[in-house]
C-alpha cells in the first residue's frame, strides 16, 4: 500500500498511525513531572488510561510505570519521568488498526509503531 501523495486525503491506515503517535506524544508531555510515589503509582496508571481512552480513535491503552525508578525526594515523593513509562496503545480509524508503544530503549523513552493492520469491511450480503 503506497502512502498518500501531497494533496491527497490520508488513508485510514495513515490516520491510525498518526493518531497513535499524537496520543503517545501528548500523554508523555502531559504527565512527565507529575508528583508520584510507589504508593500512588497504580492510581496514576489508571488515571492516565481513563483520560487517554476518552480521546477519539483510541481502542485500548495499557499504562505501567516502573516503580523501581520512583525514588523519594526530601518531601517524600518522586516525579514521573519518561523512562518510567511502559505504554501500549491501539488506535482505530475506519477498519485500520495501529498498535504502538512508549517504552524505554537504550536510556531513552522511545515511541514505536509495532504493527498496523486492516480488517475487511463487513458485507451486507
Topology:
Blueprint: H1 12-31, E1 35-36, H2 41-52, E2 58-65, E3 78-79, E4 85-93, E5 96-105, E6 108-118
Antiparallel strand pairs: 1-3, 2-4, 4-5, 5-6
Major sheet: order of its strands?
2-4-5-6
Mean pLDDT across all residues, rounded? 93
Please, how many helices? 2
* Counted beta strands: 6
Query: What helical percentage do the residues reach?
Result: 25-40%
Largest sheet: 4 strands, antiparallel
The ordered H/E elements are HEHEEEEE
Unreliable stretches (pLDDT < 50, length at least 5) are none
Shape: elongated
| Rg (C-alpha, Å) | 17 Å
* Terminal-residue CA separation: 27 Å
Structural class: alpha+beta
> What proportion of the residues form beta strands (DSSP E)?
25-35%
Brief rundown of the structure:
By secondary structure, the protein is α+β, with helices and mostly antiparallel strands.
Structural write-up:
It is a single chain. This protein has 125 residues and is of the alpha+beta class. The chain contains two helices and six strands. It has helices at residues 12-31, 41-52, and strands spanning 35-36, 58-65, 78-79, 85-93, 96-105, 108-118. The protein has a four-stranded antiparallel sheet with strand order 2-4-5-6. It has a two-stranded antiparallel ribbon with strand order 1-3. Strand 4 (85-93) and strand 5 (96-105) form a beta hairpin. The model has no long low-confidence stretch (mean pLDDT 93).
